[in-house]
Every structure is written in C-alpha cells, then in structure tokens.
Amino acid sequence: MDPSQDNIFxxxxxxxxxxxxxxxxxxxxxxxxxxxGQYPRSSRMMVGLGVAxxxxxxxxxxxxxxxxxxxxxxxxxxxVQFLGRVSRVSPELEPEVNGxxxxxxxxxxxxxxxxxFYAPNLWERExxxxxxxxxxxxxxxxxxxxxxxxxxxxxxxxxxxxAQNCDGDAIAEMNRAVKIDPEFFPAHYRLAVxxxxxxxxxxxxxxxxxxxxxxxxxEEEQASHDVTR
Length: 229
Prior knowledge:
CATH topology of the domain at 141-221: Serine Threonine Protein Phosphatase 5, Tetratricopeptide repeat
Oligomer: single chain
Number of helices: 13
Order of helices and strands: HHHHHHHHHHHHH
Number of strands: 0
Structural class: mainly alpha
Helix content: over 70%
Shape: globular
CATH architecture of the domain at 141-221: Alpha Horseshoe
C-alpha cells in the first residue's frame, strides 16, 4: 500500500528472518530485488539482497551484489562487513573481495570494523601460516581491539598466536573473546584444542562441553539478524 524504501526493506527483512516458513526466503529475495529496482542507489537495500541470496546458498550472486553495494557508497561500511564474513564462499570472486577489503582498511584506518575484516581475509590468503603479512595482520587486529574494546571478534588474534606456537598468548586472547561473548563458538573450539594440548584436562572438558552446546548454530541466522542492525 505504501512502497517506501523503509517499508520494502522492512517487509523483505521480516521474511528473511522467518525464512524457515515455506516460500518466505524466496519472497524475501523477490521483494529485495524489487526494492533494488526501485531504489538503485540504496546500498542498504543491496546489502539486504546480498544477505538473502547468501541465505539461499546463491553465493556467487550474493558476493557480486555485496561488491556492487560496496562500490555504490564507499562511506557505508555494512557491505564490506558482510563481504568480510562471506568472502570465502565464492572462490572465483575472492580477488574482487580482497581488493575492496584492502581499500576500505586503507580508507578508514581508524575504524575497528575495516581493520578487523581485512585481517582474517589476509590471513586466509597467507594460508594461515607465518607469511610475509603476519606482522601486518597482528597490527590490524590489535588496532581493531584498541578501537573497539568491547568487540569479541578481533580476538581472532589468538588464531595467529596459535599458528606461531604461542599457545599461552592464544589462550589469553580466546578467553578474552568468550568473556565478551560467551556464545562465540570458534573461540570455545580453539580453547578446547589448546587446553587439551597443554594437558589442562578440566578446562579442556569445560570448553568441549561449550562446543557441544553451541554446535549447530546457524551462521546464516546470524547474518539475517545482522542486516536489521
């Protein structure tokens, strides 16, 4: 009745959040596509479409749409944040994603999100080992931590320490992450591994229990929630 940008976005997002119902996800994509057609300069609408496509396992198109959203409005960091989360689902588009994450990190050096999302991407490109960019990755993550102390994800730095056999530092970082967000599954998993390797059986058992509790959490559900923020 009133197809404003906000109403189209809200309806499509509502359907995305209730994608478990038959036809809801397809309808969400259809409405987001309509919204992009009506408001082609809206990066928010394009991000919504990208997330809906991702939730529907249309990964290549999702990444293309998010790249287009990032190009459309370089001051809007939401497209890049989602690109950082889904960057590895479309191998053929990784060079395009890498370039955008790098550009945003350089353009907004004092933003925690742009520093963080570029770091794991760079780490994966290095093969998760002590490559030439490890120092740069540590700087990016430490800067993200300093800029946003209450954000758990930059403590991904623990993975970097673990790969360098600095298990004590890795445990400290992962513990900081789960203290901020007790639902952070990857940190619990790495802690279970690290504690077991260190012979700390009680802590390892506790983290293994946390892993079992959190296992099965759907990353797509988190993505559909994040788009409304």
